[in-house]
Design goal:
The complex is a heterodimer.
Chain A lengths: L2 H21 L3 H25 L4 H31 L13
Helix pairs in contact in A: 1-2, 2-3
Chain B lengths: L6 H16 L8 H24 L11 E11 L2 E9 L1 H24 L6 H20 L3 H19 L6 H31 L6 H9 L5 H18 L8 H4 L5 H10 L4 H8 L1 H7 L9 H17 L5 H21 L3 H29 L4 H4 L8 H15 L5 H15 L3 H26 L14 H16 L8 H6 L2 H10 L8 H23 L10 H11 L4 H74 L7 H23 L1
Helix pairs in contact in B: 1-2, 1-4, 2-3, 2-4, 3-4, 3-10, 3-15, 3-20, 4-5, 5-6, 5-10, 6-8, 7-12, 8-11, 8-12, 10-15, 13-14, 13-19, 14-15, 14-18, 14-19, 15-17, 15-18, 15-20, 17-19, 17-20, 18-19, 18-23, 19-23
The chains are: A mainly alpha, B mainly alpha.
Chain lengths: 99, 663
């Protein structure tokens, strides 16, 4: 097993996440894509940690998972409220912050 | 006690503040504080005198002066200005005189000033005066002495103008202040010259020593002495600045006794005596020639005595008499009779204080000072005042064995032994005139018909007791001359040097001269007595020369006219005109110019700076913010994915840059 196989997997996941965040219009799918990005990062952290024989990578990964869970909780709550107000979760229609 | 002589100025100074702040609330309006303070000072002075006399002394009767530096007043580089005390025989003598007279005047004033609207203030000023005078007396350097000197001048001003509601009184106070200040300019210049000449020190003992040992060039000492003497002329009312002293009689009579007879006016004489080395060396007294000090003293003796004949105000007679006697003291110092000069200061303080307080007692009874209009025949109603006043007059006239006899005799003796026949003659003529004008004064006040109104009465005890005490002193003070006691007690290291040359201290009592001067004085009394009691002599002045002389005297030699009319008028007139011209043309020009310029600047500021600059900036800021905002708002689409695209794009750019830098 080589490190670069993990990195390639992570890069693939990251790119998929970026695509999802930038291209999908559904708010829930964008949040899921954000999760993909975070998991790509987690894979990298664990892979580098294993490669260097330290547990620091795994600990970081655990932190990221915890923070991601909180983030999804907040994100889904926001999406829910937006849906209640606008009867839509299409991000292209949400531009209340337009200057 | 000698080492703690700083207590002398301190006690009345403390009493001054107490009277000032709490005096009005006290049961006796502050007078008790002043009297208590002076009593303490007097006791301390008596103790000091006894201690001084008991100090071990050499066979020339020299005692080591007690010197003590108390603290550094201020320092400038290497120059340290110190507060210190210097106690020797001269200091002790002055301490005794000042505290005695001041104490008696304090007691006397409780009755004399009773019910005065500024009673408390009066006592505060008396305390301040006493403190300043004692500070002057104990100081060991010229700067500290100057502080005391100016403070007594200030107190004199305050007390002469005590009843300032009357314009004459406040004018007299101003005149006294300005006239003495005229001399003080010279004094300050003299002190500055001596300060630099003596190697930047104000120390009196050191300056004396340097001046006597030719440590300072003669011309510098001469100018220093001349400067100091200007101060003496002003303060001790010598010709030609004597004109303020008669006017100073506008103050309350006890003040005249204390300040303008016994203490402040002798500060000048004290200064000469204290810095005698400077005068001796500066005016070349060792040569024995006629010098400025003796000349001024001599002129003052005669002109003031002549003026005393034409006064109708009893206090003015005494004022001119004081000037004349101060002239004696200055003349004595001028002819090298140091001990005689200060001995006359000592005795004169008592009998002149007595005469002034006697005059105050008379005026207390008849409510006037005018001998010709409101007095006469008072012997019947005021026997105590009469007796004491006559004794004081005899002491002043120099009748054996009263105080004035001894001191005047010493002066005449000094003048004759030191080779000054001219000043011996001046002294004898002065003695004759003194005896005559005092006889006239006594006659006009106590004998003949009473010319006033109402029934005068003898003064209360607070007035008569000080009179009797001073009478005793006027009789006895002169006896210190017997056996050279006084000169032994006041013998001084610095003046020992002089004494070995002029040998003042060695003069034995000269029976011929003493008899001569007494005969002259008796003659003066007799002639004046015959003129007044027996009506012998011309009643009306017919001789034109005599008439002119009389007019000259009544007009005080036209000196006042000279000062106020010619000098003050001549100087102040052009100065006023010049000031007016400058005011109109220069100052108004400047003011108007400033106004116009200000207006122009204001307009410029409004039009250019305010309207264009400041407003431009403010508007510009707002405008640019608005423009910038409207440009930038296009970026803020509010679309989350666009923001994310920018964010990831930026992250990508950073990643590329990082990658390129690492490899």
């Amino acid at each position: 097993m080589y490190l670069n196989e993990f990195l390639l997997l992570a890069a693939f996941l990251f790119c998929t996440g970026i695509y999802g965040v930038l291209a999908r219009r559904n708010g829930v799918l964008v949040l899921m894509s954000v999760e993909l990005i975070l998991n790509a990062v987690n894979i990298n952290l664990v892979a580098f940690g294993a490669f260097r024989h330290t547990v620091a990578g795994q600990i970081f990964a655990l932190f990221v998972i915890a923070v991601a869970a909180a983030e999804v909780g907040v994100g889904l709550a926001i999406v829910l409220l937006i849906y209640r107000n606008k009867r839509s979760i299409d991000l292209s229609e949400i531009d209340a912050l337009k200057g | 006690m000698l080492r703690n002589a700083w207590l002398f100025p301190l006690i009345p100074a403390v009493s001054f503040w107490i009277i000032l702040f709490f005096g009005k609330k006290l049961p006796k309006k502050g007078s008790e504080v002043g009297i208590a303070a002076l009593l303490a000072c007097w006791v301390l002075a008596a103790i000091s005198a006894v201690q001084w006399v008991r100090l071990p002394h050499s066979k020339e009767h020299l005692r080591e002066p007690v010197e003590r530096h108390l603290f550094n007043w201020f320092s400038n580089g290497k120059v340290h200005i110190r507060f210190g005390i210097h106690v020797d025989g001269l200091t002790i003598m002055m301490l005794v005189v000042v505290t005695t007279i001041s104490l008696l005047v304090h007691i006397y004033s409780t009755s004399y000033m009773e019910g005065d609207r500024r009673f408390t203030y009066y006592y505060a000023a008396l305390s301040l005066f006493t403190a300043s005078m004692l500070l002057l007396v104990v100081s060991d350097n010229l700067l500290q002495l100057l502080v005391g000197w100016e403070l007594v001048g200030l107190c004199s001003f305050m007390l002469i103008g005590h009843w300032w509601e009357e314009k004459d009184n406040s004018n007299a106070a101003l005149k006294a202040f300005f006239t003495t200040r005229t001399g003080d300019v010279g004094l300050m210049i003299g002190i500055i010259i001596l300060f630099f000449a003596a190697g930047q020190t104000f120390d009196i003992a050191r300056i004396n020593e340097l001046a006597l040992n030719h440590g300072i060039s003669h011309s510098l000492v001469l100018w220093g002495a001349f400067g100091l003497f200007c101060g003496v002329i002003g303060k001790s009312a010598q010709f030609p600045l004597h004109t303020w002293l008669p006017d100073a009689m506008a103050g309350p009579t006890p003040v005249s006794a204390l300040i303008h007879a016994a203490t402040m006016v002798v500060a000048g004489v004290y200064l000469v005596a204290r810095t005698y080395g400077v005068f001796y060396s500066g005016f070349s007294m060792q040569v024995g020639g006629v010098n400025l000090v003796a000349i001024i003293g001599g002129i003052t003796v005669i002109i003031a005595a002549a003026l005393a004949f034409v006064q109708s105000d009893i206090k003015k007679v005494l004022a001119y008499s004081t000037i004349s006697q101060l002239g004696y003291m200055v003349m004595a110092l001028g002819v090298g009779a140091w001990t005689a000069g200060i001995f006359h200061l000592f005795t004169h303080a008592f009998f002149k204080g007595l005469l002034f307080l006697g005059a105050g007692s008379v005026s207390h009874a008849v409510h006037s000072f005018d001998m010709k209009k409101d007095m006469g025949g008072l012997k019947k109603w005021m026997p105590q005042t009469h007796t004491t006043f006559v004794i004081g007059s005899l002491a002043l006239a120099g009748i054996f064995p009263l105080a004035g006899f001894w001191s005047k005799d010493e002066i005449l003796l000094g003048a004759s032994k030191n080779g000054y026949p001219l000043f011996l003659a001046v002294g004898i003529v002065g003695a004759f005139m003194t005896a005559a004008y005092m006889t006239r004064c006594v006659y006009l006040t106590f004998y003949g018909e009473f010319r006033g109104h109402g029934h005068p009465h003898e003064s209360p005890k607070a007035i008569t007791v000080p009179l009797w005490i001073l009478t005793v002193l006027s009789i006895g003070a002169g006896w210190l001359s017997i056996g050279q006691t006084f000169s032994k007690w006041t013998a001084n290291e610095t003046f020992e040097f002089i004494n070995t040359k002029v040998r003042t201290i060695e003069h034995p009592f000269n029976i011929g001269l003493a008899a001569g001067s007494t005969v002259v004085a008796v003659l003066g009394i007799l002639i004046a007595g015959l003129y007044y009691w027996r009506n012998i002599g011309p009643r009306e002045v017919r001789n034109p020369a005599a008439k002119a002389g009389y007019r000259l005297l009544v007009n005080k030699y036209y000196l006042d006219d000279l000062y106020t009319g010619v000098i003050v008028g001549g100087i102040s007139g052009p100065i006023a005109r010049a000031a007016y011209w400058i005011n109109q043309n220069v100052i108004d020009g400047v003011v108007n110019g400033v106004g116009v310029a200000t207006r122009a600047v204001g307009r410029f500021t409004y039009n250019v700076i305010d309207q264009k600059g400041v407003d431009g900036l403010v508007n510009g800021a707002g405008f640019s913010a608005e423009e910038g905002g409207s440009i930038l708002r296009t970026i803020q689409t509010g679309r989350v994915q666009q923001y994310a695209a920018v964010m990831f794009g930026a992250a990508f750019v950073f990643a590329v840059v990082l990658y390129l830098n690492v490899t």
